[in-house]
TrEMBL record:
Residues 425-480 form the AGC-kinase C-terminal domain. This is cAMP-dependent protein kinase. ATP binds at residue 198. Belongs to the protein kinase superfamily. Residues 1-154 are annotated as: Disordered.
Length: 480
């Protein structure tokens, strides 16, 4: 049975000291300046040939990491932060001026076409397996990441249990908060590298009936391995909390970038949508529905490529499921009306995401009331602003369609139908999968030094971490 817990878990409005009044556009203290400004050095410059991301397990001893103090990064003070207006109405959004950078759009070919390879490096992501110490390297030949080989490899399951404890990490600042706890920036005491640790309060998880989802989150994250999905290195627990050790994705949430930019130029939205499409394709080929697509769960790595985080609703579903969960604005009608549903809900959500990136608001948004949003979803009427590119509108109409026999992604061609749509015509999918295409925006972060300047600030709290007393939920989280 669908539970209202699903409604309650994911509130689109999150409160933090850095965000003050998210629902009110009048909380804007200064006109946001769009960070998506083409720079000659990266992002729109084809001379940057490739991207190399290195990930290292927290317990791997390394001397290559500079021993830089965290405060070198000089995170902005709360007062300096750009306002975020998650609750802006379409009318309010439309009343906002078009950002300067959107009046002068970057060339689509610069953005989507492959850059010239300067021979400096091949696009390659190295992952050290924390359990075995083996290195798994994504190379240009990794067929699981290219369109040429639709048979995506079954993911290898990383052995993550029992590898870490709280004592392995120094807990630094909070990166984000959620319904059951928070995500901290941490530094490994072994290799001095930085990671993100998601801490979930067991009591809260149980109270909100999310035990199964939480165990699923761990299982799914452990299983997946893809350039656009966050890597889980391990999990552990104490008597009060569950801990998930992940890569620290330094560039912040796409949500923050979108709110600062108001809306993205067509090619920029296309770039992010294309990376998400590859991630969804990978998940679906591994029978995983993601179910929580939204800009808050899309992080930018230091080069500006996406990483999907928060697998709290991901589920292994070969066929059909019935659970009501997700974020109101992004729910497909078959979820709202408690019908059985399948992977195609993620393609619906991709449509909502593309719409939000192009317009700055979601199509069914309505004064912040979930019930009103659900009504609108079931009515299914979408008003497309005139500035949406006709190809984008055509794709959106095919994704945001209640009729499952017509929804793109759910048809015979599967994800290929989405990738072959005219809006994505310039995308070279093989190169995109290898991160061989420059991102439109490179976050201003100092790489590898624990620079969390792209994240909002939160009041800190580490109460009850590391407690060893009686654990009344001992039998519920045996995988952690
Ligand atoms: N690997 C990571 N690197 C950097 N920041 C992260 C990482 N994972 C999560 N965060 C930050 O923490 C925030 C909360 O994480 P997450 O969404 O996983 O928590 P949650 O408890 O499921 O939240 P919610 O209840 O809102 O869905 C994210 O929006 C992001 O800002």
């Amino acid at each position: 049975m669908p539970s209202l817990g699903g409604f309650l878990k994911k509130k689109r409005t999150r409160e933090s000291p850095g965000q003050k009044d998210l629902a009110s556009p009048t909380s804007t203290s200064s006109q946001p300046t769009s960070p998506i400004t083409p720079t000659p050095s990266r992002g729109f410059d084809n001379s940057i040939a490739s991207v190399t991301t290195q990930s290292t397990a927290p317990e791997t001893l390394s001397t290559s990491q500079p021993d830089a103090p965290l405060n070198q990064a000089s995170p902005p003070t709360v007062g300096e932060q750009q306002p975020m207006t998650r609750g802006l109405s379409p009318q309010q959004q439309q009343a906002l001026p078009v950002p300067a950078d959107q009046q002068n759009l970057p060339s689509i070919s610069n953005l989507i076409n492959p850059p010239q390879n300067d021979g400096a490096s091949n696009s390659k992501n190295e992952h050290s397996n924390p359990a075995s110490g083996e290195n798994t390297t994504y190379t240009g030949n990794d067929s699981s990441l290219t369109r040429a080989a639709p048979a995506v490899q079954a993911p290898q399951i990383r052995q993550t249990k029992g590898k870490y404890s709280l004592g392995d990490f120094e807990i630094l600042r909070t990166l984000g908060t959620g319904s059951f706890g928070r995500v901290h920036l941490v530094q490994s005491k072994h290799n001095q590298r930085f990671y993100a640790v998601k801490v979930l309060k067991k009591q809260q998880v149980v109270k909100m009936k999310q035990v199964e989802h939480t165990n699923d989150e761990r299982r799914m994250l452990q299983e997946v391995k893809h350039p656009f999905l966050v890597t889980l290195w391990g999990t552990f627990q104490d008597s009060k909390n569950l801990y998930l050790v992940m890569d620290f994705v330094e560039g912040g949430e796409l949500f923050s970038l979108l709110r600062k930019s108001q809306r993205f130029p067509n090619p920029v939205a296309k770039f992010y949508a294309a990376e998400v499409t590859l991630a969804l394709e990978y998940l679906h080929k591994n029978q995983i529905i993601y179910r929580d697509l939204k800009p808050e769960n899309l992080l930018l790595d230091r080069h500006g490529h996406l990483k999907i985080t928060d697998f709290g609703f991901a589920k292994k579903v070969p066929d059909i499921t019935w659970t009501l969960c997700g974020t109101p604005d992004y729910l497909a009608p078959e979820v709202v009306s408690s019908k059985g549903y399948n992977k195609s809900v993620d393609w619906w959500s991709l449509g909502i995401l593309i719409f939000e990136m192009l317009c700055g608001f979601t199509p069914f948004w309505d004064g912040g009331s979930p019930m009103k949003i659900y009504e609108n979803i079931l009515k299914g009427r979408v008003k497309y602003p005139p500035y949406i590119h006709p190809d984008a509108q055509d794709l959106l109409q095919r994704l945001i369609t209640a009729d499952l026999t017509k929804r793109l992604g759910n048809l015979h061609g599967g994800s290929e139908d989405v990738k072959n749509h005219q809006w994505f015509a310039e995308v070279t999918w093989e190169r995109l999968a290898k991160k061989d295409i420059d991102a439109p925006y490179v976050p201003p972060v100092k790489a590898g030094v624990g620079d969390a300047s792209q994240f909002d600030k939160y009041p800190e709290e580490t109460d009850h971490y590391g407690q060893t007393g009686h654990d009344e939920y001992k039998n519920l989280f045996t995988d952690f």
